[in-house]
Amino acid sequence: MTAGTLPPREALTVQFAHSAYRMAEGFEARNTGIRHFQTWTVDDTLARVGEADVLVISGFWRNEILDRAGKLVYIQSIGAGYDQFPLDAIRERGLRLANASGANRDAVAQHGISLVLALARRLAEARDNQRARVWRDMISVVAEREDDLVGQTIVIVGLGAIGSQAAKIAKVLGMTVIGVKRDTSRHDGTADEVISTHQLAEALPRADFVMLCCPLTDETRGIIDAAAFAAMKSSSYLVNVARGRCVDEPALLTALGEGQIAGAAIDHFWDEPLPPDAPFWDIDNLLITPHTGGETRKYEINVTGYVVENIERLWAGRKDLFNQIV
Fold it and tell me: Is the dihedral of CA 143, 149, 155, 158 positive or negative?
């Protein structure tokens, strides 16, 4: 076997590494006949990675894997994010890396729009009142009532698979959609308007909702910062179903505390799990979900489909993987 090629079916070994997702079971259901196993901890992953020709992994990634995995040919990220991987080092070793972009497209898009609806309809407050056995009176102050989304404007940052799907749902709800993406020449036409990333500041004052669906890159790191919050309307909301580092967290705390924006819903933070002493827990106008935007009962089947596809491509001698990063 030459470098960068997979062994034949009877000699191939796939390792799945995740603390919760039952990836091996999803792969087993495909009846591939390929040897595979799953590790459930970082230590077990490191201990057994030398057996793997294909490694399917996300949060368990540690750079020392590259020195321990002598047989490795192809790495499949379990998630869409790949900022944890050392791309240059992977490339230097002649390895392939692909991500799982699209596997949770529908789930993340639906989650993001669900958060938009929850903020507009004040569902978190309703649940708090339920637990406190409070039947809230009707509200006289117009600006403090629940609202509907018809005619409101949502700025979706990242108009890829997830953002485009979110845009479709937003349009069904009667919203005006402004899509933000690096390459404005490539989109499906769902958004009412598509602008480049460097034009974001011009769109923020028009937004009732800003939703982040973008990958974490040098361009999107801290894309929502103090200046962005200052540009947003005091009645607007931020929804982040992208990476936590896309938002400047100290600036978010200030914006929420000082009323620069009406509220936010965040699915991903800088530090996860969110520490018990983090100030975000006690903010009334913040809705938190524990990085569950991509959760779906179909996820294992979806991702293992990508693995099978890419193994077949490598066996066929193809240079391109599905969702190839390196």
Answer: positive
